[in-house]
């Protein structure tokens, strides 16, 4: 029923909610042709900040607590470097094709011998460059660290280890046919537009995945779908006495080992055999 609790007096804004406010401002910008035509970074920054403030007032009222005001002020400061990047980006010939675009309803992964699985998702933004015949599939990132796509998608210090996130490769695969049809002979770039704590890291950060890596990512995605269809959900190595099913099965109440849960929720006692 999508029932949620409501708290109209937050003492602190959860990090994901801060990102939601930034996305609201950027969504309004990407859907307003007049704003997109602004060539002055200071004016664009003021417009973005106004939309951010409007979203913040709607969410937290006109007199939020001091910690909330401080968090909002910190996020406001990220619009100036973004606006500077956006103006330069547009001057290079890039234009916004669309914002918050859903993956096609027909996009699915179909492993051999298994039922296909539809993949859903919403892309923050897609830009086009007519003379270069190029597209950019963009995901906004507001995290403080300003991580690169390679750091978030692949494991290992060099970012060449196993895939741990398939977001951008799936976006590309889902939109590839429609984008190439819309602009014959075009190429598709993937990446983040970052709004991190460090203003020098703001703006476009390309995902430098090779064609072979992107193909490998889709093989991993196909393997995941096949495992789901088989009902194969490996739990991996246990961490201490942690049991991922204990809260569902109430094993510490009904038996199965000699542990018990204290009033504060912690578990004491010796773990029994599974």
Short description:
This protein has 274 residues and is an alpha+beta fold. It has helices at 15-30, 33-36, 41-60, 66-76, 79-91, 149-153, 167-182, 211-230, 246-249, 251-254, and strands spanning 95-102, 108-109, 117-118, 122-129, 134-141, 187-194, 203-206, 260-261, 267-268. It has a 5-stranded mixed sheet with strand order 1-4-5-6-7. The protein has a two-stranded antiparallel sheet with strand order 2-3. Strands 8-9 form a two-stranded antiparallel ribbon.
Q: How would the blueprint of this fold be written?
A:
Layout (H helix, E strand, L loop, with lengths): L14 H16 L2 H4 L4 H20 L5 H11 L2 H13 L3 E8 L5 E2 L7 E2 L3 E8 L4 E8 L7 H5 L13 H16 L4 E8 L8 E4 L4 H20 L15 H4 L1 H4 L5 E2 L5 E2 L6
Parallel strand pairs: 5-6
Antiparallel strand pairs: 1-4, 2-3, 4-5, 6-7, 8-9
N-to-C span: 36 Å
Taking all residues together, what is the mean pLDDT? 88
Number of strands: 9
Order of helices and strands: HHHHHEEEEEHHEEHHHEE
Number of helices: 10
Description:
- The protein has 274 residues and is of the alpha+beta class.
- Helices cover 41% and strands 16% of the residues.
- It is built from 10 helices and 9 strands.
- It has a 5-stranded mixed β-sheet.
- Helix 1 crosses helix 3 and helix 3 (41-60) packs across helix 5 (79-91).
- It is globular, with a radius of gyration of 23 Å.
Write a concise keyword list for the protein shown above.
alpha+beta, 10 helices
């Amino acid at each position: 029923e999508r029932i949620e609790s409501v708290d109209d007096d937050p003492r602190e804004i959860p990090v994901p909610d801060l990102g939601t406010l930034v996305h609201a401002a950027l969504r309004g910008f990407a859907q307003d042709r007049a704003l997109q035509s602004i060539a002055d970074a200071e004016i664009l920054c003021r417009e973005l900040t106004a939309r951010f403030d409007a979203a913040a007032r709607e969410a937290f009222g006109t007199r939020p607590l001091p910690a909330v005001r401080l968090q909002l002020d910190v996020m406001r400061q990220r619009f100036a470097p973004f606006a500077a990047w956006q103006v330069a980006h547009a001057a290079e010939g890039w234009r916004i094709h669309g914002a918050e675009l859903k993956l096609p309803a027909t996009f699915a992964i179909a492993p051999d011998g298994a039922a296909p699985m539809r993949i859903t998702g919403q892309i923050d933004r897609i830009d086009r460059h007519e003379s270069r015949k190029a597209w950019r599939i963009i995901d906004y990132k507001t995290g403080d660290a300003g991580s690169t796509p390679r750091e978030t998608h692949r494991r290992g210090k060099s970012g060449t280890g196993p895939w741990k996130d398939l977001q951008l490769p799936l976006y590309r695969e889902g939109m590839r046919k429609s984008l190439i049809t819309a602009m014959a002979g075009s190429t598709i770039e993937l990446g983040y537009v970052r709004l991190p704590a460090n203003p020098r890291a703001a703006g476009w950060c390309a995902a430098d995945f090779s064609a072979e890596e992107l193909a490998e990512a889709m093989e991993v995605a196909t393997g995941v779908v096949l495992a789901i269809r088989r009902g194969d959900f490996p739990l991996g190595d246990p961490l201490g006495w942690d049991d991922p099913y204990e809260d569902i099965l109430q094993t510490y109440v009904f038996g199965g080992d000699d542990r018990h849960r204290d009033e504060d929720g912690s578990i004491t006692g010796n773990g029994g055999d599974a």
